[in-house]
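Appendix B.2, paired examples.
Example (i):
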Amino acid sequence: MAMSAFSASAMLVAAVVAALLCCNAEAQTPVFACDASNATVASYGFCNASASAAARAADLVSRLTLAEKVGFLVDKQAALPRLGIPAYEWWSEALHGVSYVGPGTRFSPLVPGATSFPQPILTAASFNVTLFRAIGEVVSNEARAMHNVGLAGLTFWSPNINIFRDPRWGRGQETPGEDPLLTSKYAVGYVTGLQDAGAGDSLKVAACCKHYTAYDVDNWKGVERYTFNAVVSQQDLDDTFQPPFKSCVIDGNVASVMCSYNQVNGKPTCADKDLLSGVIRGDWKLNGYISSDCDSVDVLYNNQHYTKTPEDAAAISIKAGLDLNCGNFLAQHTVAAVNAGKLSESDVDRAITNNFITLMRLGFFNGDPRKLPFGNLTPKDVCTSANQELARETARQGIVLLKNKGALPLSAKSIKSMAVIGPNANASFTMIGNYEGTPCKYTTPLQGLGANVATVYQPGCTNVGCSGNSLQLDAATKAAASADVTVLVVGADQSIERESLDRTSLLLPGQQPQLVSAVANASRGPCILVIMSGGPFDISFAKASDKIAAILWVGYPGEAGGAAIADVLFGYHNPSGRLPVTWYPESFTKVPMTDMRMRPDNSTGYPGRTYRFYTGETVYAFGDGLSYTSFAHELASAPPKQVAVPLAQGHACLAEECASVEAEGEHCEGLAFDVHLRVQNAGETAGAHAVLLFSSPPSVHNAPAKRLLGFEKVRLEPGQAGVVAFKVDVCKDLSVVDELGNRKVALGSHTLHVGDLKHMLSLKV
């Protein structure tokens, strides 16, 4: 029988409502073990919340068969009904907000989106440790709120703290940049914000620092991460690649470290006992579990052919210190490895014990999370106005002003028309980068600017690839020629740089340079260039052009990116971001991306990498960033000009001249001094200022030309002065890593500098 259009529509609406009610009802039940309403389950020792996590984990392991145990070695943890343990998915992501990447988290009508912060590369440009932690706290609040309604797990495989060694790397956008100290500070701040439960060893959510280690080649000219062997000297490993992970484990007390796909010096990282059991768990005392990157164990067997059999791959990984396999490889091959005598059951017990203890610390085995700490967090705590404002503030603080010939800030009252041009001028999804979640809402650059002045929009190119066929010069130049001011928003998106895709050029993609030049030449008023990207570009032509009045880099600025861009352009916010990476010229692309050496080699013309070692020309330098005001620095109290290192009687360096001494021992205890800087806002505009303290050590052990010792952000009104204090620990801050990977205090002349201010001091024995 045919239905009327009305009744058909009514039934459709009813079906949709029923589906939503069904899904919402299902989503309101969180996943947990040790249900107090089940007396049998609640009586198990592993459900005794008053016992130690180690004792509880031991009790649980003792109740499992080997076949059951291997199910707890993988991310898709199967349910074990006889013990009241539900299925659990370990893989969730929270790189810059709760993400739908990873099967452990999903959005629904109950929680349709979460706060999407800028990509970490822009957040790091704020040089604001307080901000790093605040973002982590918001993300963990939203994660817990989603967990309480069954939409998210408790284990989040973030942050990415690899060093952005090469400007072509597609995943550099996910990182805090090229400097080990900045990356370390970001890691500790963000991880602490995510994890801190405020009581004992408990965890709010469990973070994961990845990808360990020396991982920064994804897919460059056919060289793929799955088979790449990173050849790294011990000096570079301990000086550049390891420090962020060391800080994350020791200072951040992170709950997990993820080993990477690549090999380091011929060994897959997930099968390297020295790197896993030796360093992470032995030297650094990891309080948590070690996970593989997804299918890394499968990769070392099937792609790298590192072992002869899959059982060998399972055995070598677990014995190396791996606890959890993202993927199913260990579930498939571990029992056979044990039966073949390649692995002991006690090795499996150790691994799953680390995993269980992590879940114990998270409260997973404490019953219904809605009755536990953080149980009061609900969907109303996601996408709050305060959280969304923090996303906007983060973007504002990170945006870097690279050039300003007096055009900025703009005056909304004096502008009758603004041309907004470029393939990223009306970007939405592009702004949230990768490892993204559904945002609360978007404010595109066009929307942000249009909220202040009348705009005319022309994309100029249909996409960022900007091929000849997609170039729309006539419409773009006409718009610029008739406007009081032109804002060009160009750059990249995930089609240009992403996981599994590295760049081969540092130039703006396709015909973007032609678009920029044509629009700038046609502009009636000032032309402002905005670069939206993760990695740097060679924009030398724009830097030198008299037709381009200002340049800003805005990273991938998150859900509120357009509003933040407008805030900066119109002067509602004074820019204070600093570049967290070096911007190299296109000629740098002659250097193979696969050459992992950090230090220059003058004999071959190899220029080195990052501001610490690079000897070539730059387009913009690490730490570059302008303000609408000016800041002056002076020493409020001078540090010493000479520091004696009190070596013990009989030390060899007391009898003969040494270039360096050990950076540990009794002579290091209390060996420190303070640097007090007076910083004054010498302009007429209030603003924040990131104070970066660098050191240039003596030329020993191929030391860096300079290195960042510390940074602080201070906000000052016009004419106001403040004092910023740094404590310099001689053995920690004025030491260098020698050729064998040992940290040594460099004797001789050191130079401390902040901006143009310099102070020389001598270390002697």
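Example (ii):
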Amino acid sequence: MHATDSRGHSPAFLQPQNGNSHRSSGYVPGKVVPLRPPPPPKSQASAKFTSIRQEARATFAFSSEEQQAQRESRKQKRHKNTFICFAITSFSFFVALAVILGISSKYAPDENCPDQNPRLRNWDPGQDSSKQVVIKEGDIFRLTSDATVNSIVIQDGGLLVFGDSKDGSRNITLRTRYILIKDGGALHIGAEKCRYKSKATVVLYGKSDEGESMPTFGKKFIGVEAGGTLELHGAQKVSWTLLVRTLHSSGLIFGSYAFEKNFLRGLNVRVIDQDTAKILEIERFDTHEYHNESRRLQEFLRVQDPGRIVAIAVGDSAAKSLLQGTIQMIQDRLGSKLIQGLGYRQAWALVGVIDGGSTSCNESVRNYENHSSGGKALAQREFYTVDGQKFAVTAYSEWIEGVSLSGFWVEVVDGVKLHLLDDVSSWKPGDQIVVASTDYSMYQAEEFTLLPCPECSRFQVKVKETPKFLHMGEIVDGVDMRAEVGILTRNVVIQGEMEDSCYGENQCQFFDYDTFGGHVMIKKNFTSVHLSHVELKHMGQQHLGRYPVHFHLCGDVDYKGGYRHATFVDGLSIHHSFSRCITVHGTNGLLIKDTIGFDTLGHCFFLEDGIEQRNTLFHNLGLLTKPGTLLPTDRNNSMCTTMREKVFGNYVPVPATDCIKTVLDAGIWYLFHKEPTGESSGLQLLAKPELTPLGIFYNNRVHSNFKAGLFIDKGVKTTNASAADPREYLCLDNSAR
């Protein structure tokens, strides 16, 4: 039996159990107790006699030279044996060491991973929507399963960590009305040096007209107050890239093709280019009525280039005047086996390749009985364009209750390939992506679902849906027209739980869907906030201060504020939301990087009061920013003229001068106030916003806006509505433009 001490190590020696009385005859203190007694030694006399006799025998048998050679041989053999033993011992040692280190690294906790903290206790609050959870001092919890609670407050050193697994197989969903983190409390899902591998989802539920409203934060939120820590870090993905080949509507360069018509008597023929899927020729040959039409078809097929795709479908009837020479041509060049027996009003369809033989031919025939063919005679074959796009050519013919129909389809199958600028091997099947519009209308942005694509390179993906619009992938005359392609899916998700339609006092006169989503608000003097590669969807509310991500009057959040690790958001995906994307309000030194804002209401990346400084927006993508109701400059015409609660008297706002649809008209809007606005109004600043230099503005791309990519304005109206100026506060100040 192998014994170990309390720390799992082998002891230096085994102590006798009952003192000296049980020592074996071979026991020496400090050495391992032998497993068996040593063999009895020979007597000295017999040993000496044996040695003398052996030496004498050796001396008698060999000369002195031979004896010397024998001694050298024995010496070399001993050295060789010593070396072999040393090598075997060393090898065994290193093998054992490797095994031990491998086992240790497999099971040892990673100090960079918050869910491997040995102090953590597994926590399973269950499914109880009435439970109000307070995680306080001494509560060090690891969430290990799905849970539903009313609310969670993390404070006084309490810690909540989402459990993870090394293979990414864990899937945890936490439903709650809100999470409030303050006074030393912390919420961790992954870490910068140990990113979350599994799927973690926080669902913020509740309606605007039910439940408790918390001071400052309201409802349906994750809130961070002074002393709070929020660290969310999902798996890294390339956030967005560019097309390098144009993505055509339907997925084919020349578009898809669909044709159907009744009573086109004879053989209807389409010739398709295999390299591009382009329809090259469209012909009809009335081989039922005219022999010359049969001869014309024979000549038509004779001159076709090898490799061309030919699709044929019978309309009505085609056999009466079909000559044997034409039949032979169809057999020889297209590999047909059914054309020889084609009869009156039989439905027949074929798709083949010129000189491709019978293996390239697919054909079908159905008999005409009682004014019907009992279904389609349908022929179909699949091909690849020169760019590797898979497409199908289909021909069909049928009779339905005395009506003859024939038709053709040319369309992509098994997904459409996208060719991209960057390595997107981090994008996985099932992920959702968005391709930006490259037309005048931003509404031509399209969403797609990724399919498995083993044949794709790391610069290609395949999507399930067929594109409805053309998306440019080229640089034309020096102008970069390439569409942006962004990934929306992340493995750490914060989302609002939504109702099926608009309700209550949620501006339902403008929206037919629920706009009361979740929101994340961070307040001043937080301990640490870093968000990376997190997906936020159904976030934001059409109420002031309720945005997907909102840094609210935080002051300096970089080194100037005492943060050794400056605050940032990186690689976020904010989509299908209801009020902005990221709002920086009275906050300085924030880095916003590689973040996508797609399909939201009102200004997407928003610096609120005009006093914000040292904030960096780097390599972000905003698209499909739709009108919202919060500010005059968020609104469209209808909202602008209808929302009159904050104007003076009976004044009716004028969209062109009060609102001007800035959200829709401008991609990037710089506004230099004469004085701070909003909650920063009245602050005495060292520098006036209107005199502050523009700063670095480099390598920005703006397109698909109605009027301009960039607006630089002097300011907005900074006085409340009055008889002298009845317009709403923060509407456009046209006198200053």
